[in-house]
Amino acid sequence: MSYVDGFVLAVPKANLDDYKRLANLTGPIWMEHGALAYVECIGDDVPYGELTSFPRAVQAKDDEIVVFSWAVYESRENRDAVMAKVMADPRLTPDWGPMPFDGKRMIFGGFKPFMEL
Predict the structure, then answer these.
(1) What residues have CB less than 8 Å from 117, skipping those under 6 apart?
(2) At what angle do helices 76-88 and 16-32 cross, to 10 degrees?
(3) CA spacing 20 to 30 A to 44: which of 13, 59, 66, 116?
């Protein structure tokens, strides 16, 4: 069964083009190093909940949009190997300038699927 890394973050709407440019540069690196899939999604129907919600989770401000991303790997072991290669890839270290989002509010984690259809 596969393994999934998930990410939720808030991107200022003014920085969305920069974020997309960054994702288009980095996503293929994950694929090249062995990810089976890499997906970036912009919030379209993401209401602000009374108790919990994606916007609340990342403390999204009025001028920000929620982004949900994930990468799929063959296994946890494969993910660990892919991530080691990705983190060592020199293409991830160029001076891109400031990140287009606040990484301190990004939520991420690895998930072991229990069902795949």
Answers:
(1) none
(2) 120
(3) 116
Residue matched to tokens 């994702």: 23
**In whole angstroms, what is the distance from residue 48 CA to residue 25 CA?**
30
Question: Across the chain, where does the E strand assignment appear?
Answer: 3-12, 37-42, 64-73, 107-111
pLDDT in tens, 77-110: 999 999 999 999 998 876 777 889 999 999 999 9
Name, in order, each residue with C-beta under 8 angstroms of 60's C-beta and a sequence gap of 6 or more. 10, 48, 54, 66
Tokens for 73, please give them: 């790997």
- What is the fold of 3-111? Alpha-Beta Plaits (3.30.70)
